Amino acid sequence: MNLSRFFDIPSDLQHSYAGLIGLHLREALIPVLAGLLLALPLAQLCVRFKWVYPPLFGITTVLYAIPSLAFFVVLIDYTGLSETTVMIPLAVYSLVVLVPAIVDGVRSVPQETLAAATALGLGPVRRYLQVQLPIAVPAIIAGLRVATVSSVSLVSVGMLIGNQGALGNLLNDAQIYHRPELAVNSVVTTALLAVVLDAVLVGVRMLLTPWMPKESTAR
Amino acid sequence: MIRIDQVTKRYADGTVAVDRLSLDIPDRAITVLVGPSGCGKTTTLRMINRMVEPSEGTILLDGADIRDQPVNTLRRSMGYVIQNAGLFQHRTILDNIATVPRLLGWSKPKARERAAELMGRVGLDTALAKRYPYQLSGGQQQRVGVARALAADPPVLLMDEPFSAVDPIVRKGLQDELLRIQDELGKTIVFVTHDIDEAIKLGTMVAVLRTGGHLAQYAPPAELLTAPADAFVEDFLGADRGIRRLSFFPSAGLELRTEPVVAMDAPAARLTAPADVPYLLVVDTDGRPLGWGAPDDLTAGAIDPARLLNHGRPFTPGRDSLRTALDGAVLSPTGWAVAVDDEGRATGVVSQQVIGEAIRTAHAAGREDVTAAR
Q1: Is residue A4 part of a domain?
Q2: Does A215 touch chain B if contact means CB atoms closer than 8 Å?
Q3: Mean pLDDT over residues B136-160, rounded?
Q4: Residue B244: which residues within 8 A CB-CB, separation 6 or more?
Q5: With contacts defined as CB-CB under 8 Å, which chain B residues touch A113?
Q6: For residue A216, is it within any domain?
Q7: ipTM
Q8: b or e along A93-124 (b: 16 or more beta carbons within 10 Å of the residue's beta carbon)?
Q9: At what angle do helices A17-48 and A133-154 cross, to 10 degrees?
Q10: Does residue B8 sit in helix, strand or coil?
Q11: Does B91 contact A135 at a Cβ distance shorter than 8 Å?
């Protein structure tokens, strides 16, 4: 292993080290964001119509069980060897984590709080936006942390479809060029990204929820 | 006035929560709905602000059907206080209280100014304004709940078992506070509780409901205690309703005896008891009662307070009821109750016999009142 070439990225990847990190972040975070935007209305549907939740939960769990490779094989016909092909499965996985998190969060709002909101004259939209959603923030962020970390690690699989794995592509190059330091770089950088993003989310949670009892903020 | 007219609530599964209930709820008074669980009291309350829609019948507010105005307009015109307060845990105390003014379109500074004013009114330190609900005790949270309900100055206040989740001492404080606020504001309050003592303490009118949503009796508390409509109401009122009823009779008319009251530095000539009073009540130099002593035991000019008998809890004529006076007499080992003025100075003593006569007179008069009221 030649550590002096740790950051010497082979030219076939067409990116600098920082460029790979940027690419990795994009491929990991856009799916989480898309998953969140889809999960919010789906979760609200589950809260409003209780019977929706069990079948929806069943479907998303089955989707979660499908390996990403199988997803890629199906998607290549439609979206080709592109970033999109990598991001669609990741968005689905995020959705699977986020829907139950948001449903649980919204359901954790105490009955008397909801009754009081109704009685004070907040309509359904205000109740959702001003009471249920803010109180669900800790649960939503807990879900986002799981989704984000798993998304960051899963992007690497994109290496298998035309080098769309960002930092994961370093693993392939490590083999081709017999440069194990590139594999170490890939693993360490991916892990660091996950840790940093997780810390950022914890920070966001603390900023958004000054109303939480201090003893339970340490999760 | 809120008129509940032949209202029935039947659920899809056939359960009847409220059965052809008719009630006229008077303005600027506290009307209490009381009954065991399953009697439909909360359902009735929630039909007034349309959180529950009646299956049959109508509810009129000042003569107009409550369904005539948009539901959220109706609700914003009625304050609502719920068990456990139901505060918005993600908002500060001030913003919790400012909820309805904000919904009504007040500016943020104006709504917050109003909220701060209400904190004072319900006995909350304004230093708590920026705190969050989890940082407050249960009793303080409930005060915030009351302030939030009062924020937009609604004419009607609906209260759903607001004080049942706090401990008895805090509850008594909250009840007294509510009566004080009601004296100042004169709201039309509908109050739901399962606690008959709370109903009797707070209610101007009390509606006793029985399981299945039937009205058992609707009367002022004194009448309820004097003439329960049936065995269910009598049973629900519980034991010692005769004693509790005394709370409604004033102690002002009691004839007080002043000659058994002596100062602790009284001369020997004063230390003789009247023929019908076995003991003397010794008071300190400010006139506050110290205790009872037998005339033979007292040393003129140097009475030892430690040797006196306990004088029981004194009552204040005009403010306290015959119940308090009788309680004082029963607690005192001599059987005499001590009357004091607002500063706690003894104004005289009265015997159990005299209190007993006053009770008999009040009962006779009370019975006539009740009959006349029917």
Answers
A1: no
A2: no
A3: 95
A4: B197, B200, B225, B237, B323
A5: 86-89
A6: no
A7: 0.82
A8: bbbbbbbbbbbebbeebeebbbbbbbbbbbee
A9: 140
A10: strand
A11: no
Q: What is the pLDDT of residue A215?
A: 63
A216 touches B: beta carbon within 8 Å: no
- Residue A162 belongs to a domain: yes
Assigned token pair, B227: 């003439």
The tens digit of pLDDT for each residue in B100-120 reads: 999 999 999 999 999 999 999
B-chain residues near A119 (CB < 8 A)? 49, 51, 75, 78, 80, 82, 158
| Residues of chain B that touch chain A, judged by Cβ-Cβ distance less than 8 Å | 49, 51, 72-76, 78, 80, 82-92, 99-100, 103, 132-134, 145, 148-149, 158
Range of the structural domain that residue A88 is part of = 15-208
Tokens (6 digits) for A172: 């392939």
Residues 6 or more apart from B179 whose CB is under 8 A from it? B202
Q: How distant is the Cα of B138 from the closest Cα of chain A, in angstroms?
A: 14
Could you tell me which chain A residue has the CA closest to the CA of B89?
Answer: A211
What is the domain count for chain A?
1
In a domain, A145, yes or no: yes
Q: Which CA distances in Å does A4 have to A8, A20, A173, B40?
A: 8, 19, 17, 79
Q: Does A115 touch chain B (CB under 8 A)?
A: yes
- CA B146 to CA B164: how far, in whole Å? 14
Query: pLDDT tens digit string along A90-144?
Result: 999 999 999 999 999 999 999 999 999 999 999 999 999 999 999 999 999 999 9
Hey, what's the torsion of the CAs at A114, A115, A118, A123, to 10 degrees? 30
Rg (CA), chain B: 26
CA A29 to chain CA centroid, nearest Å: 6
B143 within 8 A of B129, measured Cβ to Cβ = no
CATH number of the domain residue A176 falls in: 1.10.3720.10
Smallest Cβ distance to A113: which of B86, B92, B103? Answer: B86
Across the A:B interface, residue pairs with CB atoms under 8 Å apart total: 72
Q: Which of A123, A135, A210 sits opposite B72 (nearest CB)?
A: A123
Domains of chain B (ranges plus CATH)? 2-248 (3.40.50.300), 261-358 (3.10.580.10)
pLDDT of residue A195: 97
How close B231 comes to chain A (CA, Å)?
Answer: 34
Rounded CA gap, B194 and A192, in Å? 59
Q: What's the CA gap between B9 and B16, in Å, rounded?
A: 6
DSSP B39: S
Which pLDDT score, from 0 to 100, does residue A51 have?
92
Kindly state the tokens that stand for A127. Answer: 């109740």
- Report helix, strand and coil shares of chain A as percent, to nearest 5: 80, 0, 20
Nearest chain B residue to A114 by CA distance is: B86
From residue B168, how far is each of B36, B138, B172, B374 by CA, in Å?
Answer: 19, 12, 6, 35
Q: Is the pLDDT of residue B16 over 50?
A: yes
pLDDT in tens, B232-277: 999 999 888 888 888 888 888 899 999 889 888 888 878 887 778 8
